[in-house]
């Protein structure tokens, strides 16, 4: 029997009902600005979440197969991306997306908002800034469902992973610090040299599919990761996954599991669907 979730009415938002893949159709700011064209997916796992936001106008990355191969033009588009990973908590009717990993430099305001249902749309309204976002639940498999915080055994970098059905998201923070109070685009444009600019961009937030042949990245804040296999393997409190260095050379990244929610299943699925 397939675990693919059938279309159904949305439940009142809570930590128990929120797990799933949510697609954003609208961001409206108090000053009248609106965004209806960006790609925005948020995967909510058991407590932990990952979120990738990419603006329209994606350039051609043909031939740019590593961090060191990026051009100044493509680097500026990458710097306009957003994305986060952390934990969703609820208190007194307010939801807070606490960020362990942030693609952009640390924000001035906390990410807190109210959530409610209007028809088939979940509406989010910000607390510190009264923005409005519209979210739609995507029909993906409901099991397996698990998530974890990770830490790179060699570098100490934070990571996160979540899986629901045949979809996964993974995140890794950059190794270097970025100046606060600036946008990432300003950091990249003002970097001392190309190598430093590349370090500022080296934060991965990827979404992918578990198929009959493996775990494959489909969208990423680092486009040269797309189409690559993670080939995850678990050994006790360790995950091993395939990655690449700045020059594009493959290597095995070893993650320590520091916070596990659910039972991590790494199996491949027939035709990408759990049975």
Layout of strands and helices, then pairs:
Layout: E1 20-28, E2 34-35, E3 39-44, E4 48-54, H1 72-79, E5 82-91, E6 94-102, E7 112-118, E8 121-126, E9 132-137, E10 145-152, E11 158-164, E12 167-172, H2 184-189, H3 194-201, E13 204-211, E14 214-220, E15 233-235, E16 238-244, E17 250-261
Antiparallel strand pairs: 1-2, 1-3, 1-9, 3-4, 4-5, 5-6, 6-7, 7-8, 8-9, 10-11, 10-17, 11-12, 12-13, 13-14, 15-16, 16-17
Explain what this protein looks like in three dimensions.
By secondary structure, this protein is mostly beta strands. It has helices at residues 72-79, 184-189, 194-201; strands at 20-28, 34-35, 39-44, 48-54, 82-91, 94-102, 112-118, 121-126, 132-137, 145-152, 158-164, 167-172, 204-211, 214-220, 233-235, 238-244, 250-261. The strands form 2 sheets. It has an 8-stranded antiparallel barrel with strand order 1-3-4-5-6-7-8-9. Strands 14-13-12-11-10-17-16-15 form an 8-stranded antiparallel β-sheet, with no helix packed on it. It starts with 19 loop residues before the first strand and ends in a 14-residue tail after the last strand. 31% of the residues are buried.
């Amino acid at each position: 029997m397939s675990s693919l979730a059938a279309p159904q009415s949305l439940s009142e938002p809570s930590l128990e009902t929120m797990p799933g893949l949510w697609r954003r159709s609208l961001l409206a700011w108090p000053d009248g600005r609106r965004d209806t064209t960006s790609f925005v997916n948020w995967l909510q796992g058991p407590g932990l979440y990952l979120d990738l936001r990419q603006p329209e106008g994606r350039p051609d990355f043909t031939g740019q197969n590593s961090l060191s191969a990026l051009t100044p033009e493509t680097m500026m588009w990458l710097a306009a991306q957003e994305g986060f990973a952390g934990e969703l908590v609820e208190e007194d009717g307010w939801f807070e997306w606490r960020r362990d990993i942030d693609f952009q430099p640390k924000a001035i305001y906390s990410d807190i908002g109210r959530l409610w249902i209007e028809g088939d749309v979940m509406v989010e309204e910000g607390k510190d800034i009264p923005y409005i976002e519209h979210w739609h639940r995507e029909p993906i498999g409901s099991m397996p469902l698990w998530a974890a915080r990770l830490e790179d055994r060699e570098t100490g970098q934070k990571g996160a992973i979540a899986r629901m059905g045949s979809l996964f998201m993974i995140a890794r923070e950059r190794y270097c610090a970025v100046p606060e109070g600036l946008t990432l685009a300003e950091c990249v444009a003002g970097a001392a040299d190309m190598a430093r600019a590349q370090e500022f961009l080296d934060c991965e937030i990827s979404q992918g599919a578990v198929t009959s042949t493996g775990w494959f990245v489909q969208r990423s804040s680092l486009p040269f990761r797309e189409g690559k296999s993670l080939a995850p393997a678990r050994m006790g409190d360790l995950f091993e996954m395939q990655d690449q260095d700045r020059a594009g050379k493959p290597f095995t990244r070893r993650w320590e599991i520091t916070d596990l929610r659910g039972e991590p299943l790494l199996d491949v699925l027939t035709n990408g669907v759990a049975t």
